[in-house]
Amino acid sequence: MRREPDPRAPALGALTPGAEGEALGRTEDRLWVQIAYPDAARAGWVPAAALEVVRGSLAEVPAVPSPRWLHPPVTPPILHRGFGAEPEGFARWGLPGHEGVDFQAPPGEPVRAAAAGLVLRAGEIPGHPYGAQVRLQHHRPDGVYVTVYGHLMPGSIEVMVGTWVQAGQRLARAGSQGFIHFALKKEGGGNGAYGDFVDPTPHLMGPLEGGTDPAAEGL
After folding, report:
1. End-to-end CA distance of the chain
2. Which residue, 60, 64, 59, is CA-closest to 45?
3. Which of 4, 3, 39 is nearest to 19 (CA)?
4. How many percent of the chain have pLDDT more than 70?
5. Sheet holding 63-64, edge to edge
6. Of the candidates 212, 213, 208, which has an alpha carbon nearest to the alpha carbon of residue 73?
7. CB within 8 A of 57, min separation 6: which ones?
8. 186: number of Cβ within 10 Å
9. pLDDT tops 70 at residue 39
10. HSE of 20 in the Cβ direction (CA atoms, 13 Å)?
11. Beta bridge partners of residue 123, listed in sequence order
12. Max Cα separation, the chain?
């Protein structure tokens, strides 16, 4: 049993073969089930494939949205600069620090959609600090989010405003800076001086090279 529906999350304990527990919830993709074993105080997550349903149906169990729903936009996901870094440099933008995360990406590296969504912006904005960029809108159970992909190679953007893209679909290629900017906004997020910008790190799947593993840290 894991603390969260992720194989890298801290273990809470082991199930005894043949033991029964009440299903409390499931992930949106139905790959993980939250069970109370041996009681509700020890509720944890178990892969659905490891369970046998003896009464009822998992379809009746309420879906619990996963906190980690974003795929890293580049592979491998090597962190170049984290959220909140370099407060002095970002003060001129009225921000307390870096409003997103930067991933190392050689020029021409494919940049992919972190999640399925609607293309809100795709192109170059003269004078904008992100340069050539793509923005996607995502409707989640807890609100509406926007992912931002900046410092892209001019002329490499492959998607159009108003179209729907799938998770992992190629959006563009990385520009000449050697990294791409990735930011997450939650409409009405109200994150202090960051406004709608929130730290995307706890929502990313898997560990980040050169950074932290959100699952291991329990974020």
Report:
1. 17
2. 64
3. 39
4. 93
5. 44-47, 32-36, 22-27, 63-64
6. 208
7. none
8. 18
9. no
10. 3
11. 133
12. 63
